[in-house]
Amino acid sequence: MSSARRDGMADRPHDAIVKYAFSQIEHATGLLKSALPAEIVSAVDWGALRIEKDSFIDPDLRSTFSDLVYSATMNGHEPLFFYMVLEHRSTGEALLVFRLSQYMGRLWERLLRDQPERKKLPPVVPILLHRGKTPWTAPTAFQDIVEGSGSARAALEPHIPRFELRVMDLTDGQASLLALEYLTALDRVVLWALTVAHESERLLAEIDGMIEAIVETYLAPNGHEALQAILRYLSATHERLSSKELYEIVMEAADRKNRKEVFVDLVDYLKHEGKVEGELEGIRKGERAILLRMLRARFGDVPDGVEQRVKAAGEKELEKWSLRVLTASTAEDVVA
Question: Could you tell me the residue ranges of all domains in the chain?
Answer without folding.
Answer: 3-183, 203-334
